[in-house]
Amino acid sequence: MSNAETEPHPNAQPQEPQEPQAPYVEVLSARDVPLGGPRAMTVRRTLPHSSRRLIGAWCFVDHYGPDDVALTGGMDVAPHPHTGLQTVSWLFTGEIEHRDSLGVHALVRPGELNLMTSGHGICHSEVSTPATTVLHGVQLWVVLPDEHRDTARDFHHHVPEPVTLDGGEARVFLGTLAGHTSPVPTFTPLLGAELTLDPHATVTLTVDPTFEHGILVDRGEVRLAGTALHQGDLGYLAPGPTSLTVTNTADTPARLVLLGGTPFEEQIIMWWNFIGRSGEEIVQARNDWEKGARFGEVHGYDGGRLAAPELPSIPLKARGRVR
């Protein structure tokens, strides 16, 4: 919107100073989605959402658990492909065994970051370990910018140190927050952190005003910039504020995942496990996976790989960050 008036309200009387308004918080609610495959587990997905596809370059937020593995069977996701993105695994409880076609065999544990870069193509499997009794965490994706989307496969593991806050604690797994910077490189400016808030504590964090931010409530009831967020909600804030204020309104500790980044302005197509820029690209990635080309092999997984679903009958179109 543009204001064309050069001298608006020339006769207006002086106004009393106004209190600054709290930033608007858009509340994104979750939907239940089966994770995929014959032994699928159900996750709560808040991104992509019906009103918003991206927060920075964060394009996918799955939240699961706490699940009693004796009842649910835990996680068993057979080898499957990715293109044009990074996967970010972060656990609260439990343990997951990761294997990929780069040859990495690693464990995902609570408070430890595992970041896998697909680039032109990678495949991996994810299985909760026999020692896991309760599985609880988030699975996140980051879209790669056009100039880096065909980059080489890569994998990073990082254990962030806890950072003490006035009223809580932070673990910064990507980007910079509260004076702590993660050493894990990213292809766009990003922020990712786990926050814990003491009962009835209010925490104010200095943030980059060029970032848009999202706060996912894993546990508890909080207020973000005065807006109530319940367990499973993702609160979105547009760029502009230089600080974020979060209040735990409960008698028990709250746990949150804070995500942020500069707005990602490229148009993308997300279909199944692929991110591309054209429908033809997605079709080619699917064909390559079905033919056993391009993505390599996962060694050590007990079972077959996931088959790609059928493509939709209508052409796939690239879309922007907001629906």
UniProtKB/TrEMBL annotation:
It holds the Pfam family Pirin. Residues 193-295 form the Pirin C-terminal domain. Residues 1-20 are annotated as: Disordered. It comes from Kitasatospora aureofaciens (Streptomyces aureofaciens). Its cofactor is Fe cation. The lineage of its organism: Bacteria, Bacillati, Actinomycetota, Actinomycetes, Kitasatosporales. Keywords: Iron, Metal-binding. InterPro entries: Pirin (IPR012093), Pirin_C_dom (IPR008778), Pirin_N_dom (IPR003829), RmlC-like_jellyroll (IPR014710), RmlC_Cupin_sf (IPR011051). Fe cation binds at residues 80, 82, 124, 126. CDD domains: cupin_pirin_C, cupin_pirin_N. SUPFAM superfamilies: RmlC-like cupins (SSF51182). This is Pirin. Residues 42-142 form the Pirin N-terminal domain. The keyword Iron applies. GO terms for molecular function: metal ion binding. Binds 1 Fe cation per subunit. It comes from the Bacteria. Belongs to the pirin family.
